[in-house]
From TrEMBL:
<keyword id="KW-1003">Cell membrane</keyword>
<keyword id="KW-0521">NADP</keyword>
<dbReference type="InterPro" id="IPR000778">
    <property type="entry name" value="Cyt_b245_heavy_chain"/>
</dbReference>
<keyword id="KW-1017">Isopeptide bond</keyword>
<protein>
    <recommendedName>
        <fullName>NADPH oxidase 2</fullName>
    </recommendedName>
</protein>
<keyword id="KW-0249">Electron transport</keyword>
<keyword id="KW-0812">Transmembrane</keyword>
<dbReference type="Pfam" id="PF08030">
    <property type="entry name" value="NAD_binding_6"/>
</dbReference>
<keyword id="KW-0472">Membrane</keyword>
<dbReference type="InterPro" id="IPR017927">
    <property type="entry name" value="FAD-bd_FR_type"/>
</dbReference>
<keyword id="KW-0408">Iron</keyword>
<dbReference type="GO" id="GO:0034702">
    <property type="term" value="C:monoatomic ion channel complex"/>
</dbReference>
<dbReference type="GO" id="GO:0006952">
    <property type="term" value="P:defense response"/>
</dbReference>
<dbReference type="InterPro" id="IPR013121">
    <property type="entry name" value="Fe_red_NAD-bd_6"/>
</dbReference>
<keyword id="KW-0479">Metal-binding</keyword>
<dbReference type="GO" id="GO:0046872">
    <property type="term" value="F:metal ion binding"/>
</dbReference>
<keyword id="KW-0407">Ion channel</keyword>
Length: 302
């Protein structure tokens, strides 16, 4: 038995040593941004750090816990000179990080007062394959939109420099969110993309649909009153926010009709129930003919 056990144990030990060495490399927090609804953005730098879109890292803050490592999706693009994560304050560890970064104080925090951070990664995910398709569907649920922040930022940078070499020609983006507060930190990115595509006369490149799945009677009345305004009352975007949940069967059939004979990548970061629905729709709307339309499903769960 020991002959079969020694090999895997040796490889495991090597992997742990490499991860320990990477986690000891110095990380500098360059900026802490407080977003609405208790979400903070940490912008960091680390020597030799290289990333691809949609990847994630493990983060440890010794000031909060000397042993706990937590995974966070990178929200920066590879083209930026820093890497960033968005952290929503929903538990003891994230609350401790929030306080350690001085976000609970009103006065400006000096950089040397910021806590030390250990970072391990980045690690790959399915979202890295986005640029391998000409047409993609990106579906995010709640905070699961974070990997697509990296994707859309990277698209924006590529368009600014040289859009002709970009294989990706069409993005269908869906974001399902329970409350309005979560829209605020992400809306600025969509507004920048919207303006960029219009300047280059390619507004059709990005089609996005934002769905609000929970609201109360007061909010509903406010939405109705302002529905006729040019920009959406929640996001400030030209595309109006939709209410309820999407009819996925109709969405898949519509996209299949617009892109016959294509391989369409479907990327999800969301709960398991939504993954099952999208997987079934991807299979049922793919044609048996190899020359027909095919939906290729990729998922990340949280």
């Amino acid at each position: 038995t020991w002959k079969w056990v020694v090999g895997p144990m040796f490889l495991y030990l090597c992997e742990r040593l490499v991860r320990f060495w990477r986690s000891q490399q110095k990380v500098i927090i360059t900026k802490v941004v407080i977003h609405p609804f208790k979400t903070i953005e940490l912008q960091m730098m680390k020597k030799g750090f290289k990333m691809e879109v949609g990847q994630y890292i493990f983060v440890k803050c010794p000031a909060v816990s000397k042993l706990e490592w937590h995974p966070f999706t990178l929200t920066s693009a590879p083209e930026e000179d820093y890497f960033s994560i968005h952290v929503r304050i929903v538990g003891d560890w994230t609350e401790g990080l929030f306080n350690a970064c001085g976000c609970d104080k009103q006065e400006f925090q000096e950089a040397w007062k910021l806590p030390k951070i250990a970072v391990d990664g980045p690690f790959g995910t399915a979202s890295e394959d986005v640029f391998s398709y000409e047409t993609v569907m990106l579906v995010g649920a709640g905070i699961g939109v974070t990997p697509f922040a990296s994707v859309l930022k990277s698209v924006w940078y590529k368009y600014c420099h040289d859009a002709t070499n970009l294989k990706l020609k069409k993005i269908y983006f869906y974001w399902l969110c329970r409350d309005t507060h979560a829209f605020e930190w992400f809306a600025d990115l969509l507004q920048s993309l919207e303006a960029q595509m219009q300047e280059r006369n390619n507004a059709e490149f990005l089609s996005y649909n934002i769905y609000l799945t929970g609201w109360d009677e007061t909010q509903a009345t406010h939405f109705v009153v302002h529905h006729e305004e040019e920009k959406d009352v929640i996001t400030g975007l030209k595309q109006k926010t939709l209410y309820g949940r999407p009819n996925w069967e109709n969405e898949f059939k519509t996209i299949a009709g617009k892109h016959p004979g294509s391989r369409i990548g479907v990327f999800l970061c969301g709960p398991e129930g939504l993954a099952d629905t999208l997987n079934k729709q991807s299979i049922s709307n793919s044609e048996a003919d190899p020359r027909g339309v095919h939906f290729i499903f990729n998922k990340e769960n949280f």
